[in-house]
């Protein structure tokens, strides 16, 4: 029995595609009429990418990616008006696509608003990562004269833009702390989004993503919210990190508060030398959450779903070695997070 390349659960026999539930496929691609495979090889993708490079339409970010459009009967790469984005695993990060897809599904399981995504085979069988764009939606009342749907764009800004940080210079993507970002989110959107942000920081810690920096946090002001989560990867699968998170947690990393000692593990401090839930609770208080009740609920939920997450990692499309490593990272982080209780 194949595992669904969207929800990572077993597929049933009567679905159209071997590796997708009909319902899952429809929710990402809005049709069952297209093929369950992308119409090009890695090499052809690279050629397309090179051709597009000089164009002003390319999507920003580190990984090679192209815009994809889902037409009624087929999928095609396009320069404008794409409905989806495809990313290939960079050569130096094998199975990054499988890793990102799994990490996104763990976020979704934990109730975080998360971009819809799927794994899909290239012509020669390698899995690419495909995500449905959350910055546009189909205009339900309008179809163009040529029969195509019309899409309405939702404006989004990443934290570099929103917080007015210049794109020049060193260390720019980590020019703020999570506290500063959280305070900013609280000030423009209030408690609910600040809580969503805090949960996202905690979960990134749990799955070993040290790449949750200012370009991977975005807002949609017209919707009064953060965008759904995107670009979530267990980066510890590829390199050891000495920092544990993409940004510093609190503003006083060199100060002498109890909490600073707690995670910095300084001489004479009473801390553990790594982040625990008390550090994230401190972040919650500082960014203005009136109560930590819902954060406690999130911790309980995380403990309750630990075995489900373990199961998801085991049934994912990563190879055995990567599964084992992913699980090791997840267990290590969960143990750190809850250490004071054990
Ligand atoms: N599902 C999506 N919908 C809309 N925009 C997206 C989506 N996923 C990513 N993006 C945008 O594309 C940019 C690059 O994508 P990202 O996944 O961060 O790639 P990279 O790994 O190269 O950084 C992001 O900074 C974000 O602005
Ligand atoms: Mg990114
Ligand atoms: Zn499914």
CATH top level class name of the largest domain: Mainly Alpha
Q: Please give the count of helices.
A: 11
The sequence of SSEs as H and E is HHEEEHEEEEEHHHEEHHHHH
End-to-end CA span: 38 Å
The rough form would be described as globular
Structural class designation: alpha+beta
CATH topology of the largest domain: Phosphatidylinositol 3-kinase Catalytic Subunit, Chain A, Domain 5
Q: How much helix, percentage-wise, in residues? A: 25-40%
Cofactors and ligands: adenosine-5'-diphosphate, magnesium ion, zinc ion
Rg measurement, Å:
21 Å
Q: Please tell me the overall pLDDT.
A: 90
Tell me the total number of β-strands: 10
The strand line-up of the biggest sheet is: 2-1-3-5-4
What are the low-pLDDT stretches, counting only 5+ consecutive residues below 50?
264-270
Instruction: Summarize the main sheet.
Output: 5 strands, antiparallel
What number of structural domains do the residues give? 2
Sheet-strand content, in percent, reads 5-15%
Instruction: Give the name of the CATH architecture of the largest domain.
Output: Orthogonal Bundle
């Amino acid at each position: 029995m194949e595992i669904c390349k969207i929800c990572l659960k077993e597929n049933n026999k009567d679905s159209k595609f071997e590796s997708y539930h009909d319902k899952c496929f429809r929710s990402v691609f809005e049709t069952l009429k297209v093929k369950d495979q992308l119409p090009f090889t890695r090499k052809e993708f690279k050629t397309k990418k090179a051709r597009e490079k000089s164009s002003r339409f390319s999507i920003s970010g580190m990984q090679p990616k192209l815009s994809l459009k889902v037409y009624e009967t087929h999928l095609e790469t396009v320069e404008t008006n794409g409905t989806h984005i495809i990313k290939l695993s960079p050569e130096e990060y094998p199975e990054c696509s499988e890793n990102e897809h799994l990490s996104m599904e763990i976020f979704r399981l934990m109730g975080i608003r998360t971009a819809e995504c799927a794994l899909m085979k290239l012509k020669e069988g390698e899995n690419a990562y495909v995500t449905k764009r959350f910055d546009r939606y189909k205009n339900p009342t309008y179809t163009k004269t040529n029969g195509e749907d019309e899409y309405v764009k939702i404006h989004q800004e990443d934290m570099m833009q929103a917080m007015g940080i210049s794109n020049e210079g060193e260390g720019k993507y980590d020019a703020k702390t999570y506290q500063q970002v959280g305070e900013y989110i609280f000030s423009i959107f209030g408690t609910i989004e600040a809580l969503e942000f805090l949960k996202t920081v905690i979960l990134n810690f749990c799955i070993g993503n040290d790449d949750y920096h200012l370009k991977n946090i975005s807002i949609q002001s017209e919707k009064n919210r953060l965008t759904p989560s995107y670009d979530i990867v267990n980066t510890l699968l590829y390199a050891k990190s000495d920092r544990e998170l993409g940004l510093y947690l609190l503003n006083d990393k060199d100060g002498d508060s109890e909490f600073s000692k707690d995670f910095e593990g300084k001489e004479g401090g009473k801390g553990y030398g790594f982040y625990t839930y008390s550090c994230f609770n401190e972040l919650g208080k500082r960014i203005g959450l009136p109560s930590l009740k819902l954060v406690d609920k999130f911790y309980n939920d995380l403990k309750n779903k630990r075995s489900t997450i373990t199961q998801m990692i085991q049934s994912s499309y990563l190879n055995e070695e990567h599964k084992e490593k992913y699980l090791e990272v997840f267990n290590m982080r969960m143990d750190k997070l809850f250490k004071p209780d054990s």
